[in-house]
Write a structure and sequence with these properties.
The structure holds two protein chains of two kinds.
Chain A (H helix, E strand, L loop, with lengths): L1 H12 L1 H39 L2 E6 L1 H12 L13 E2 H8 L4 E14 L37 E6 L6 H5 L2 E6 L11 E5 H6 L7 E6 L6 E12 L18 E5 H8 L6 E2 L1 E6 L5 H9 L8 E5 L2 H38 L1 H14 L3 H55 L2 H4 L7 H10 L14 H27 L3 H7 L2
Parallel strand pairs in A: 4-9, 6-8
Antiparallel strand pairs in A: 1-11, 1-12, 2-10, 3-4, 3-7, 3-11, 5-8, 7-8
Helix pairs in contact in A: 1-11, 2-9, 2-11, 2-14, 9-11, 9-14, 10-15, 11-14
Chain B lengths: L5 E8 L9 E4 L2 E2 L3 E7 L5 H8 L7 E6 L2 E2 H4 L1 H8 E5 L10 H11 L7 H11 L4 H4 L8 H15 L3 E5 L7 H17 L3 E5 L3 H6 L2 E6 L2 E6 L2
Parallel strand pairs in B: 4-9, 4-10, 7-8, 8-9
Antiparallel strand pairs in B: 1-2, 1-3, 1-5, 5-6, 10-11
Helix pairs in contact in B: 4-7, 7-8
The chains are: A alpha+beta, B alpha/beta.
Magnesium ion binds next to helix 1 of chain B.
Keywords (chain A): Cell membrane, Membrane, Transmembrane, Transmembrane helix
Subcellular location (chain A): Cell membrane
Pfam families (chain A): FtsX, MacB_PCD
Chain lengths: 492, 225
């Protein structure tokens, strides 16, 4: 093991060169480690974001396509344009639910109804400055009918009320009894709002009677199984229309809502929301869904991952930038170190000649070179794992700051183009999506929790070792090809 | 007479022009306990010849045998490692090491083991006039004569039977030269080595046992009595 000793003596004797190599190697390692750490922090953050946000895909009628189709059909007859949508059959909904990546799914059917044996919460009649034209945005439940319908209540049919939008948002919460469950399908049960219950002295176990807003003869007796509380203030229109008052929303199984809408709607739903196991799988899920028998001329699948995209966009840019840093610095570092080693090759050549004349094995000569640089590499890796953490933090968060500022700017500009640029946002409607995005531009992940992990250091060690060996091997090869005689006699 | 230690058998050598070789059909035997000198004009091929003897280069024709075995077959690296110590005009010490480290490294490479190596090396260096303090400083800080003494001590400590030296006194003054030649003579006669030294100094040649005069590819052996 004399070559190890020689390596040590050589490094000790040439302190200046050793120090220079150590500084360069440490700088390389700090950058590589920062890159690695930022990358893994970015990955962890976007994974966390994905898990928190999940992501869902909504299957609903493609209104534009349906409208076009109807307009072309109706241009022959002279009647007023009527809009009828084709509801989604349960078979279609279930065939897509059976695909991979679906964590859970929920149906949505909305209908309007009038209260028969109780009083709905009256909206205040104060004057309202919103123009009447706005009321064209009728609630979802009546789109099928066209025109305007006055009704007391909004009836939301679901498969599971826990997964209905206002419950999963946290806006609504069960305070007594239970929510609508999958097993309730087919039975006449309801979950009503606390205020409505209190006004009418209703409790879990009581029954209420309602009638369809479109056909007064269709009535239903519903057993109250749960009472919920909503924190929603309702929209401006709630002032004018009682069914828009959030207190007047009742949740029922989708089958009950279908009954209210009429016989045509048996075994259908208006829209289905599929919760993904991971927002990352949305594209794969949509691609798989498009291969099923479901007619996508009539229906469409909308990804509700805008928020996710907005959040992880900057992070992903940072991650890919960090990856490039790792590549670039590794290659540049290997080249620089190899050059430094080569610069001292003349001196090394002579040394190699002497050792070879004595009879040293060639692999041990290479071993000495490699040892010298590997020792430096190890010290550099050690130093950079001490200094790497703060540097990676500064670097990573600076990068992210730039990215979030840049993306906030683009978000704002795209929003200013109007609702059209907002993209589909599923059930909430385009207007809702835009205001959400406006009010929460800072939803993007704005700081990274950067921590150098053992895994990072291990990878750094691997990269450092590879760089060291390449830097030592390139000159070694050229030296080992030399004949000791030429080295020694040319010296004279 | 005993068998030769090193035997050139029909050895020929050329650098570029095979038709015009440096030398051809050389048959010379070298024995232990003998101090050989090689003389000749500059460019006559002394260094080339010594490189073949020391296993630094391969003969183009013929073969060289050490103790009856072809050095080509045993491998030149192994031959140098096991049997040869080489000393050049420029001392060929490793500049960043001390005298002591140079010798210790060479002993490690040639796997020569002695009890209490440090004492042994220091004692050997003291014999050629290198103090312990000098032994522990970088070799480049020593004078030329001192460096050559270190190189000779290195050869001595490695205890190889064949020692080849290319103008080892070329850079040294007369007085120092004489002392160095004395060391080589002692190596041959007291340590029973085969020493082959290239020199252009006739006085030194006269002190050796055998002088080989090299000119225009022919070798003339002169026995000194
Ligand atoms: N590497 C080489 N390539 C080609 N010719 C060489 C080489 N080395 C030496 N020579 C030539 O071979 C001849 C003998 O050189 P050398 O053995 O060094 O002589 P000496 O040591 O006696 O001065 C010279 O003419 C020299 O020019
Ligand atoms: Mg010469």
């Amino acid at each position: 093991m004399n070559f190890l000793k020689r390596a040590f003596w050589s490094m000790k004797a040439k302190k200046g060169k050793t120090l220079l190599q150590l500084v360069i190697f440490t700088v390389i390692c700090v950058f590589v480690l920062s890159g690695l750490t930022i990358q893994s922090a970015a990955k962890a953050s976007s994974e966390l974001a994905r898990q928190e946000l999940g992501g869902s895909v909504t299957l609903q009628v493609d209104r534009e396509a349906a409208m076009e189709k109807q307009q072309s059909e109706q241009s022959e007859s002279d009647g007023p344009p009527q809009f009828t949508s084709t509801p989604i059959s349960l078979d279609d909904a279930e065939s897509i639910a059976a695909l991979d990546h679906v964590k859970s799914y929920n149906y949505s059917v909305s209908a309007s109804a009038n209260a028969e044996d109780f009083d709905n919460i009256e909206s205040s009649t104060s004057t309202d400055d919103s123009s009447d034209t706005e009321s064209d945005q009728a609630p979802g439940g009546d789109q099928g009918r066209g025109g305007m319908v006055q009704a007391d209540l909004t009836v939301n049919g679901t498969l599971t009320s826990d997964e209905a939008e206002s419950f999963s948002d946290g806006e609504a919460e069960i305070v007594d009894g239970r929510g609508i469950e999958e097993s309730d399908a087919g039975s006449n049960v309801a979950v009503i709002e606390q205020t409505l219950a209190e006004e009418n002295d209703l409790e879990v176990g009581d029954t209420i009677n309602i009638s369809s807003a479109s056909d007064e003869d269709t009535t239903q007796e519903l057993e109250i199984v749960g009472i919920y509380e909503t924190s929603s203030a309702g929209s401006d229109q709630a002032m004018n229309f009682s069914f828009l008052n959030p207190y007047n929303t009742i949740y029922v199984p989708y089958t009950a809502a279908n009954t209210l809408k009429g016989e045509d709607y048996t075994d259908t739903v208006e829209s289905v929301t599929y919760q993904m196991d991971d927002a990352e799988n949305i594209d794969a899920f949509i691609a798989a869904a498009e291969k099923t028998d479901v007619d996508f001329d009539v229906y469409q699948l909308d990804a509700n991952d805008d928020l996710y995209q907005q959040m992880v966009g900057p992070i992903e840019n940072v991650a890919s930038f960090a990856k490039n840093i790792v590549y670039l610095v590794t290659i540049a570092g290997a080249v620089i170190l190899a050059l430094i080693v080569m610069l001292s090759i003349r001196e090394r050549k002579y040394e190699m000649g002497v050792l070879m004349a004595i009879g040293e094995k060639k692999w041990k000569l290479a071993g000495q070179f490699i040892t010298e640089i590997v020792v430096i590499a190890i010290v550099a890796v050690g130093l950079s794992s001490i200094f790497g953490n703060p540097i990676a933090n500064v670097l990573g968060n600076q990068l992210l700051d730039q990215q979030t500022t840049a993306s906030a700017e683009t978000t704002t500009t795209s929003m200013q183009q109007g609702p059209g640029g907002g993209g589909p946002m599923g059930g909430g409607g385009p207007g809702q999506a835009v205001s959400d995005a406006f009010s929460q531009p800072s939803e993007a992940i704005s700081s990274l929790n950067i921590n150098v992990t053992w895994e990072n250091i291990l990878i750094l060690g691997g990269i450092g070792l590879a760089v060291a060996i390449i830097a030592a091997l390139i000159p070694s090869i050229s030296i080992l090809r030399l004949q000791p005689k030429n080295i020694l006699t040319k010296q004279e | 007479m005993t068998a030769p230690l090193l035997a050139f058998k029909n050895v020929g050598y050329w650098y570029t022009d095979k038709q015009n070789p440096l030398f051809q059909s050389v048959n010379i035997d070298f024995y232990k306990n003998t101090f050989y000198t090689i003389t000749g004009t500059s460019g006559s091929g002394k260094t080339t010849f010594l490189s073949l003897a020391g296993g630094l280069d391969r003969a183009k024709e013929g073969d060289i045998e050490y103790d009856g075995k072809s050095i080509r077959k045993m491998g030149l690296g192994n031959f140098r490692h096991d049997y040869v110590s080489i000393i050049f005009q420029s001392y060929n010490l490793i500049p960043y090491m001390t005298a002591y480290q140079n010798i210790a490294s060479a002993m490690a490479i040639t796997s020569k083991k002695v009890e209490n190596q440090e004492d042994y090396i220091l004692k050997m260096l003291a014999k050629v006039g290198i103090s312990e303090e000098q032994a522990k400083q970088r070799v480049l800080t020593l004078s030329g004569g001192q460096q050559q003494r270190v190189a000779i001590t290195r050869a001595f400590c490695c205890d190889n039977d064949l020692i080849v030296a290319d103008e080892p006194t070329g850079n040294l003054d007369d007085k120092t030269s004489k002392e160095i030649v004395k060391l080589f003579t002692d190596l041959a006669h007291q340590e029973n080595k085969c020493v082959i030294m290239v020199t252009h100094d006739p006085q030194i040649a006269a002190q050796s046992d055998v002088t080989i005069q090299l000119s225009n590819g022919s070798f003339r052996m002169l026995q000194h009595v």
